[in-house]
Amino acid sequence: MVLDFIVYGSCGVYRKENVWQFVNVTLTLDMGTLAIDDDIVGSDLYLALGLKELGKGVIGTPRVLLLLSSLLERSVQKNETLLETAQIKDAITIFHGSRAPTLSVRQYIDRIFKYSGCSPSCFVVAHIYVDRFLQHTDAHLTSLNVHRLLITSVMVAAKFIDDAFFNNAYYAKVGGVSTAELNRLEMKFLFSLDFRLQVTVETFRSYCSQLDKEVAGGLQIERPFQACGIKESWSSKEDSCASTIAR
User: Which residues form the signal peptide (predicted)?
Assistant: First the structure.
């Protein structure tokens, strides 16, 4: 049976028909959605990152996206240098593609934000989820897996902390992958996290501080990216995420 999408709510993981019958134990979320209190919302750090209260809309590109893309790109460059010199070994996962997409991390994040309609806070939470995924696996962030990890983690974050979100088919179109593949990525991601999606206010604040310090680490600002219309396909086959090499 093909799972169209998963919805996370206060009662755990909702199942569609009997899709979860193959699981021998009941799977529930480590509950506790991120509740951003007033002192954080009004803090200089929160405002400096361009984070807004959920549902209030954002004008322009939030600074947090620039900082996150810079941090991820530098992490990818560092890991690939270490891999080339055999200083670290990478585990091939379902998130690895056969080749790196032509879109940079910055361009990909811009595209996701423009069309997903999710809050800027989702990208901070997604960053936390990716860190947890990497800690639970032997994988390293590289140009072959960063795009799939981004679209999957942002989608999961949107489902967990935002009031409104789209189905997997829509996110798949935004991310340049098939719906079937995104379904598999989501399942693997959730199981790798042991379905623990809770993010405490302290953890959220810590990651915000980490991103804010990225400026001192060498933030590189690229030219503004004009993403193609969501109703259109990617400009070329090379622009979409290449087929995964691990199933």
Answer: none
